[in-house]
Amino acid sequence: MGKIGTTExxxxxxxxxxxxxxxxxxKLGRSLGKTLGSFRKGMNDSADDDDDDEEEVVVKKKxxxxxxxxxxxxxxxxxxxxEPEPELPEPPLTETLSDYRAQLxxxxxxxxxxxxxxxxxxxxxxxxxxxxxxxxxxxDPMIRALPLLAVEAIVCAIGWRxxxxxxxxxxxxxxTSGFLTMLLCLVxxxxxxxxxxxxxxxxxxxxxxxLGAMSVYCALLGESLRLHGMxxxxxxxxxxxxxxxxTVTAGGAAKRVGLPGGxxxxxxxNAPYSRWQSVLLPVFLAVAVVFGMLSTLETKQNALxxxxxxxxxxxxxLLAFPMxxxxxxxxxxxxxxxxxxxxxxxxxxxxxxRSNCVILTDGDLFPPGTVTLGGLKVFGEESGKxxxxxxxxxxASESGLSRLFDNLLARDGGFREQVxxxxxxxxxxxxxxxxxxxxxxxxxGFMRKRGVNLPRNLGLKTGVFxxxxxxxxxxxxxxxxxxxxxxxxxxxxxxxxxTPVLAVRDGNITPALLKRKFGTDARAVYPKLSTRLALSExxxxxxxxxxxxxxxxxxxxxxxxxxxxxxxxxxxxxLAFLAATASTLLAFYLTFVGAYSVLTPFSLLIYVLLWSLxxxxxxxxxxxx
Length: 625
What we know:
- The chain is of the alpha+beta class.
- About 60% of the residues lie in helices and about 10% in strands.
- It has helices at about 5-20, 25-50, 65-80, 95-130, 135-140, 140-160, 160-170, 175-195, 200, 210-235, 265, 275-300, 305-315, 325-340, 345-355, 360-365, 385-395, 400-410, 445-450, 485-495, 510-520, 530-535, 550-590, 600-620; strands spanning about 245-250, 250-255, 340-345, 355-360, 370-380, 420-425, 430-435, 435-440, 465-470, 470-480, 500, 545.
- The strands form three sheets. It has a six-stranded antiparallel β-sheet with strand order 5-10-9-8-7-6.
- Strand 9 and strand 10 form a beta hairpin.
- Helix 12 runs parallel beside helix 23.
């Protein structure tokens, strides 16, 4: 292997100046530095998400920042997501669904058409590699190359939407994977034409139209996957008014009643890590061109310039790049659709996963039907008054017990009373005044703290007590039955290191009760009463996800899926860039030393597929949780 001398270095400098221009180099350096910084920050965020921090603060206090720091933070947020302003008008969800359905139909047809012709080129590469083709075909370079040239041109024509999108992004100053695919197709078409008509070129390595066609097919596949994910998202969102939305509060992700306004804008926001690709891909492009030129100079085979560029561009622009975000989005959206939920794309998923906490209320942990009355004992009062007072206080507490006591009241034929001066107590109870009488309703611990005498040897772990003017008048034996979907959700949250925040109003529901009923408390945080009351509010907030079904499972699926979506996209992006770096360096070595015998179309096809495998496998497993 020869050494890179002064001439080669001057060529490298000239190529870099031609590609970027002298005025753009300082800006490129700054952008590259910022991107690498956000790249490392993203990796650190992924590691932080997996830390087991049991002392996590639930309610975050807002602090004033210096103006300079605040501006920097806002700039970093803008770099991560280019999200439309919430005030922007958005079309109806049904109209957006129709648009994505039409786009998906066109992209699917293009992908299938390109796949047929790409498969034909792959078969030809296999036959060439194993010398199965007849000699009459292989003896004439024109007969050998022109069919391949025509097939690749057809694939490029089918994939015109990829090139159009790449040119639109280029006008905005962004170099995308689609642009590198377009350049790869141009040089492979040129090299194939040279092989057909230039005898000096025909005596050397076989052309590589299969690489250009495969790159177009993978770009179309990535576009189809992205559109499929968006279609599944809006297919659920367009069903109708969602009974619940998932928003983000200071305490974490929260399920609330709200409107879907703003969901569409969030879902259509740009995918994350686009800045990583828009800055790093130009560097990979420049490196590929430089390496191709250096290999040509070293081997002194000028006719192989287009071929060397084909090898380097195919190695730098891995087949996985169009799918590193699209494939996880498609798989997560499909899984969420099965549970009757939808997350607002990467923007919504990132907002949900950043808190790494999920707010759970009484109804989430013990839905209707799982809280039953095991018995009732009355002390010196009429049962009608006892049931009426208990139902009134349970309703005033807005806890999960309200439905139980409302049903009991309906069976007794009574009605709720007017309650005044309602107060909540840290010990697990609620108090108020009914007809001038002081009424307390809560747990045994709460009653003792308030000075109410309780019978000895009660043996109730989850009882509810009612007192009037400091005298106990009733004891209710309440049973909490674990639901299977809640059990799955708590264990899944525990496994994914997502912290549940118990925003409960029922004093019996504590981490200890969860431990007894479900075998795990999922490292739940049990905040102070004021925090629990604030976090258990039921309305308002921006919709980052929509829930069409009741229960904790769809809610947990959204929180878990959001974290998995962002984590998988990050890992796949990192793996793709690492693989592209190694692939480019190895390809440069092979072309630089002139190892043309091992760089056949078939071997190079397997080469680029294997380098993309790790990122694609990770993306395929993104919905396994």
